[in-house]
Amino acid sequence: MTPDPTDTTATPARAKRRVALGVSGGIAAYKAAEILRGLQRAGCEVRVAMTEHATRMIAPLTFRALSGAHVIVDDYAPDNPDPIAHITFSQTVELFLVAPATANIIAKFANGVADDFLTSTYLASSAPVVVAPAMNTTMWQHPATARNLQRLRDDGVYIIEPDAGEMACGTFGPGRLSEPERIVAAVLQILDKHDGRAHDLAGERFLITAGATREEIDPVRFLSNRSSGRMGFALAEAARSRGAEVALVAGATSADAPAGVRVIRALSADEMQAAVRAKVSEATVFIGAAAVSDYRPAARAAQKLKKSGAALTLVLEPTPDILASVAAARHDGLLVVGFAAESENVVAHAREKLVRKKLDAIVANDITREGAGFDAETNIVTLIARDRDAPLELPLMSKLEAAHRILDEVVRLRRGARAASEAAG
Ligand code: C5P
């Protein structure tokens, strides 16, 4: 589709954000490649610096190939194209991430030691610094490490706590590098925060369903629909960029899930309901954007159904209504938003669903209109909130922009709910 230059609703293309990735010498150094890719997918330009020890774990060439740029280990090296790299490198980035950060690099940062390129960059940088430690549990629990980390926190460094789990050395305990997708999410949130962009969803925890469900008929066939997952993914991306934590339960999708968001896969309506049930108690906002099948085969054939030439009748039974059950069992403070894809009497049908399913808001779209609905990059939606007299009709816009408008409605509802509870006591 050719963009319309008069369309002021289109999301403007953003300049790439510049991130420096420092890799120090832990076994988890190989995971830095995945972090680099995640950051790139989220629209960041990444430059890599490594410690000498890290180059024993993973070759600089890997990062050079992935980032398309020279990887600095030693700024005195003859092949370094920039003689004052520690200054230019550190002064031109918006964020400095060190992942994995060893106990040694943490100790050096905490004490202002600058005996190689990475540590000099730390001292020369005025960008926010994010450190993702990874080390053996005993080293992690050592009082010296705890002391050094506290110093970094006091100096304004963001720490992404390691996970607990099986370590490379075979022991169990805390010290394992946090998951690359979590690190990417944290970096994006910190970039947003330092960008000064609206952070009006900070503190909210979103649970969003997206995509189509698949209901199996036999081992090779299923019932499904044309949902691409794009609308739910756009909501997840928009909520994350506004400071929310986001978990996404995705069925079958044909679009890429946004970076920085936890994705839980659930193919059938039953699996989706189980995934939602497991997560909903942690959520403050639930958005049901998935196209959940309303019916499933009453029985799934264990073997592939044979062609007999005669007519075949498939008996269907209703699936659980995930959205309605979330709304019916909601805990205090949970906002619930649904979608209504309609082909006639759009607003009336959507409003009826809002009331029947006890929702706070519903996003209606007329799937017969060009540029709206399934499998498109754009959408035309009407927002109906329980406290609005008139529906809010929005024009054709990108799914990301539509997502932001839906989230504006969530923010408005949240403020209303807060004001009401303050007035009550
Ligand atoms: O009733 P209808 O299926 O049109 O409602 C659509 C809304 O309900 C969407 O938000 C969809 O995610 C949700 N839904 C659900 N579980 C179902 C069917 C729909 O959560 N079984």
Structural class of the secondary elements? Answer: alpha/beta
Bound molecules: cytidine-5'-monophosphate
* Lateral arrangement of strands in the main beta sheet: 12-11-8-13-16-17-19-20
User: Regarding quaternary structure, how should these chains be classified?
Assistant: single chain
Strand content: 15-25%
Low-confidence stretches: 1-13
C-alpha Rg, in Å? 25 Å
Q: Which outline best applies?
A: globular
Helix content: 25-40%
Mean of all residue-level pLDDT scores: 91
Q: State the separation between the terminal residues, measured CA to CA.
A: 52 Å
Number of strands: 21
Largest sheet: 8 strands, mixed
Distinct helical segment count: 14
Summarize the structure.
The chain is of the alpha/beta class.
